[in-house]
Amino acid sequence: MKMILLVPDGVGIRNYIFSSFIRNFIIDGNEVLVYHSISKSAIEEIQMNKSEIRDFKEIPDFKEKFIARLLRESIAYARILINIKKLNNITILKFWSPSKNGFKKKILYFLAEILGFLLSKSYSLILKADTLYEKEIVKNKTTKLIKKTLLDYQPDIILNLHQRAPSTVPIISSAIELNIKVTTVIYSWDNIPKARLISRYDSYFVWSKLMKKELDLLYPEIKSSQIHIVGTPQFEFYFDEKHYLNKDFFYDQFGLDIHKNTICFSGNDQASPYEAYYLNDICEALCEIDQIDRPQIIFRRCPVDKTNRFNQVLNKYNHLIVSIDPDWGGVVGSDGSFSENYPRFNDLSLLINTIKHSDIVINLGSTMAHDAAILDKPCLYLNYDPVVNSVFKVEDIYNFQHFKSMENLKAVGWINSKDEILKKIVSALINPSQVGKDRKKWLEKIVLHPIENSSHILNKKILKCISVS
Q: 326 is in which domain, residue-wise?
């Protein structure tokens, strides 16, 4: 069996390539071609740590024509408007935040919003626009180069690791035309309502029953039988003790105090503008505790956050904070996007041991709450606006659709004001099992259990997809 693995950005490297998924597929006697848009250094990192993966080919540069781009953006906007009604959740509109810098982009998105509004009046119009978009893609000259690659390699199946990447669209279109089976993972728990599922596939691999239900509801043209619940390999690493470091060694390596409690503050990307304010507030609160008993902070920034926005806080509280930066590589001068950055294999150890050797994780609505839950660590969600009259409102975050999965569960602890920080931290340190006591139940809703079997389940489903005529 031959599989083409589409890797349009760095996220799929950690979540899939570094997992046992590809290794097991190859060990079973199958072949894999990594068809990618990642850097040379990212490929070298893969080859260094996953030597069984040998075949790589760069995806040709793909430039959408104006009409194709207009159709894609219009369809996305139309689906967002429909999703708001179907899910009764206005915060979904927050996912429509295109950059309108420059005259051409202003025109593009002005037209997209008009056309998208009209398309949203009838779902059949959206499906017709999907068809028109596919016709535009087929006409693109890049499609001919891709067809040659597919004909030369003769894959049995294509698996796309990023359902929203435009660079993969002509590959999927070409494969469908050549009767090659196409599949995709929905790579994150919050992706489906965002209306960025561009292509249509034979099979869709999702994390949970919740995601399957969302996909059924928001994309009625997809048959329920095409949607497979497989979990996600990205959490498997926590069950492999080869990644574990002795606490004494880990603390000594980063200059942490073995005798102190430890709090992990994990940052979000630049779309969350007030992260440094939160970190400063936490430090101010901790300074109320006598130095001998004062917890220390491990600061783990978002891997693609290249800004210096935390520098002032890190310098001010350098006696309190130890910064353990994610071990990610990237293109020099990159824009801080996941498409131009990638995780090194060593970052698995950094992430796992940061959580394993922390007593609490604190952040603003991050997926890191799930990472913490796997290791049975309490997570505190920040739930207040640190800047008066800010445009960015924290209440919007927790009204996002994916947080509806927390309903009736005490999955995390809540810090509802700056004045609550110290009390909530002390409570979590003294009674960790009582703060977010339903974290494991929430995790069971979010991702298929047993979590450590995800790669195996995904492999079985892919092989089954190939065998079904």
A: 241-446
